[in-house]
Automatic annotation (TrEMBL):
<feature type="domain" description="Autophagy protein ATG5 alpha-helical bundle region">
    <location>
        <begin position="115"/>
        <end position="175"/>
    </location>
</feature>
<dbReference type="Pfam" id="PF20638">
    <property type="entry name" value="ATG5_UblA"/>
</dbReference>
<dbReference type="GO" id="GO:0006995">
    <property type="term" value="P:cellular response to nitrogen starvation"/>
</dbReference>
<protein>
    <recommendedName>
        <fullName>Autophagy protein 5</fullName>
    </recommendedName>
</protein>
<feature type="domain" description="Autophagy protein ATG5 UblA">
    <location>
        <begin position="8"/>
        <end position="101"/>
    </location>
</feature>
<dbReference type="GO" id="GO:0019776">
    <property type="term" value="F:Atg8-family ligase activity"/>
</dbReference>
<dbReference type="GO" id="GO:0005776">
    <property type="term" value="C:autophagosome"/>
</dbReference>
<dbReference type="InterPro" id="IPR007239">
    <property type="entry name" value="Atg5"/>
</dbReference>
<dbReference type="InterPro" id="IPR048939">
    <property type="entry name" value="ATG5_UblA"/>
</dbReference>
<dbReference type="InterPro" id="IPR048940">
    <property type="entry name" value="ATG5_HBR"/>
</dbReference>
<dbReference type="Pfam" id="PF20637">
    <property type="entry name" value="ATG5_HBR"/>
</dbReference>
<dbReference type="GO" id="GO:0044233">
    <property type="term" value="C:mitochondria-associated endoplasmic reticulum membrane contact site"/>
</dbReference>
<dbReference type="GO" id="GO:0034045">
    <property type="term" value="C:phagophore assembly site membrane"/>
</dbReference>
<dbReference type="GO" id="GO:0000422">
    <property type="term" value="P:autophagy of mitochondrion"/>
</dbReference>
<dbReference type="GO" id="GO:0034274">
    <property type="term" value="C:Atg12-Atg5-Atg16 complex"/>
</dbReference>
<dbReference type="GO" id="GO:0034727">
    <property type="term" value="P:piecemeal microautophagy of the nucleus"/>
</dbReference>
<dbReference type="GO" id="GO:0061908">
    <property type="term" value="C:phagophore"/>
</dbReference>
Amino acid sequence: MMEAQKYVWEGAIPLQIHLHESEITSLPPPSPALILAPRIGYLPLLLPLIKPYFSSTLPPGQDTIWFDYKGLPLKWYIPTGVLFDLLCAQPERPWNLTVHFRGYPSNLLIPCEGEESVKWSFINSLKEADYIINGNCKNVMHMSQSDQVELWHSVMDGMLVCNLEKYIRASSKLKLGTVTTDEADMVGQVKAG
């Protein structure tokens, strides 16, 4: 079981990130950034790696990072691995994404106010999972603040083995268990109906 968890935890997707052509202010245009992104991570958390890479070519103005894949704005609150699995019928390696720092599509995406937005979206997803599995979200609601912070930092920091151990320690307090086939079918029927 631990070996499977470690395998999933260490999963990563090679990304080739291009700066959108409308935001390039230098010649020649910058080369794409190559990043190995954790499958369990979130695209906005890549900002500290991406912004310095493209900073010399960005136009002046307020930065609000967002990504698209073949023109489709990507929902920042969905883990990178899930986005990849949903959108790449024939997986491409590296996955070619476009990053934007201007022109946030607020008519298509809910605003992301940085790491705090991603953190609270993650915690809310935990509450939803707890509710689906247990019929309530008491396990998440009764987590101590320090356990929530430890769980979030283990996800945010990505693929380090020590963070997997932190994640397992903190997430074990959630008692989410596993979903049976019958329960998964029931959830699928509810979502389809």
